Structures are given as C-alpha cells and as structure tokens.
TrEMBL record:
Residues 3-73 form the Ferrous iron transporter FeoA-like domain. PANTHER family: FE(2+) TRANSPORT PROTEIN A. Keywords: Iron. It comes from Candidatus Scatosoma pullistercoris. This is Ferrous iron transport protein A.
Length: 79
C-alpha cells in the first residue's frame, strides 16, 4: 500500500516510490538523498507533527511536514 511519508507513524519504515514537488523543493530532496528506491524509517515526530526525523542511507535527516508530503512511500513494516 502506498502512502506519503508525512502519514507514517513513528517506527514505521518503507521504500521510496517517487518524489513529487516543484523545482527547488524536489531538487533539495534529491540532493539530500531522498530518491526512489531508498529505504526510510521514521524515527521521531515533533509534538505538532512538524518536523519529522527519518533515517535514510545510514544517517538521520529532518524534514518539514510539507517536504515529507512530497515523498510517496511503499509501506514496509512497523517496528
């Protein structure tokens, strides 16, 4: 089942299917290693849900909720 990274619960993981967004936002995500095929685990969410911290390619990355909404994920498992 595909869903947006912004919809993930803490501890949930999955694989990136696609990255949407306009120009600079999409380019910034790609520059940070958020590319199709990468495995992602949602580690933390701020109290109001923005920002979120993920683990991708062996490092921690913090994304705004709007950026996370641009990332379509193949749902993995919850740990």
């Amino acid at each position: 089942m595909a869903k947006r990274l912004s919809e993930f619960a803490v501890g949930e993981s999955g694989t990136i299917l696609s990255v949407s967004g306009e120009g600079a936002v999409r380019r910034r995500l790609f520059d940070m290693g958020v590319t199709p095929g990468a495995d992602v685990k949602l580690r933390k969410k701020a109290p109001l849900g923005d920002p979120v911290e993920i683990t991708i390619r062996g490092y921690e990355l913090t994304l705004r909720k709007a950026e996370a909404a641009c990332v379509e994920m193949q749902n993995g498992k919850e740990e």
